[in-house]
Specification:
Spore Coat Polysaccharide Biosynthesis Protein SpsA, Chain A, 2 domains, alpha/beta, 37% helix
Length: 301
């Protein structure tokens, strides 16, 4: 089927003046009918020069720039973009990412299947960058949806919204992003659960619809973010969706096996002795440990 739908690209932007120009420019090079594309740049209360950079694109007739007066979080920024557009397909792209000219087409190639409602594309380290420990973990082929392969149905834990397309019709069935989730992590998982429940065979992964992620971050910084996610948004998800306790990682928080594996002594031993020779497994342990430590601060209250 030669389906060429109208496209809304929603880009939430918050304090990304170091990369957002490159992000938008990559969207302007798409090999897709320009008259079928509308780009929504949502400045979510940035305090740097992001807003000024976005305004410099205002002369493009198919770019709409919307400014939030204060930072409201990814959920609110994405909802603003969704509600502003009418495209048959909505593609979400984080503003610290750049894409190749065939990016839209690769998303559409999979969405042409009537059974498919959503596609998450791959994320890669920018070409030429030397990977840090965190990069080696984030972009490892064993992590996330990559291990299931091209076009294979995936479950909600692997469906993130950083480089993702959805048919607009899904929002006639499920509600928008939960704007009560304002801090890092979980807003995409909350929506993905409701999406997967409505369309259990409708989510796919694609190596072809890839993006480059321009966000240098050290492992310790990422662990701090995941600690915050464990302390704030994970408990809410576990309360809202108790049936998915295992897939959300809740079984490790207060169980005996959880305390045996994730505790200060084991953490010290793992880091000091470098028990995991492969940095992927060491990083994975430390990230999960950070989430669990955050969640345990709530369970003790």
């Amino acid at each position: 089927m030669n389906w060429l739908p109208s496209i809304d690209i929603v880009v939430p932007c918050y304090n990304v003046d170091h990369i957002v120009k490159q992000c938008v420019n990559s969207l302007l090079t798409q090999k897709y009918d320009e008259n079928s594309i509308t780009i929504y740049l949502i400045n979510d209360g940035s305090t740097d020069t992001t807003g000024e950079i976005l305004n410099s694109f205002s002369h493009h007739h198919h770019i709409n720039i919307i400014h939030h007066e204060k930072n409201r979080g990814l959920s609110a920024a994405r909802n603003t973009g969704i509600k502003s557009g009418t495209g048959e397909v909505i593609i979400f792209l984080d503003s610290d990412r750049t894409v190749q000219p065939n990016w839209i087409s690769e998303h559409i190639n999979i969405l042409r299947n009537n059974d498919v409602v959503g596609v998450i594309g791959d994320s890669q380290l920018p070409h030429g960058n030397i990977p840090t420990k965190l990069d080696s973990y984030l972009y490892d082929p064993r992590r996330g949806a990559r291990r299931f392969g091209e076009g294979t149905p995936i479950r909600f834990p692997y469906f993130l919204l950083n480089n993702t397309s959805l048919k607009r019709s899904v929002f006639d069935v499920i509600e928008f992003f939960d704007e009560n989730i304002m801090s890092y992590g979980g807003e995409d998982t909350e929506l993905a659960i409701r999406l997967w429940e409505a369309y259990p065979d409708g989510l796919r992964f694609s190596f072809s619809a890839t993006c480059e992620h321009h966000h240098h971050r050290e492992l310790n910084d990422y662990c701090n973010l995941m600690y915050g996610y464990g302390k704030t948004n994970l408990p809410s998800l576990l309360k809202q969706f108790p049936q998915y306790n295992t897939e959300l990682g809740g079984q490790w928080i207060k169980s005996i096996k959880g305390y045996l594996l994730f505790n200060p002594i084991v953490r010290f031993w793992v880091v000091k002795t470098r028990h995991f020779r492969n940095s992927f497994w060491l990083s994975r342990y430390l990230v999960i440990d950070a989430v669990i430590r955050g969640a345990r601060t709530v369970s003790r209250q």
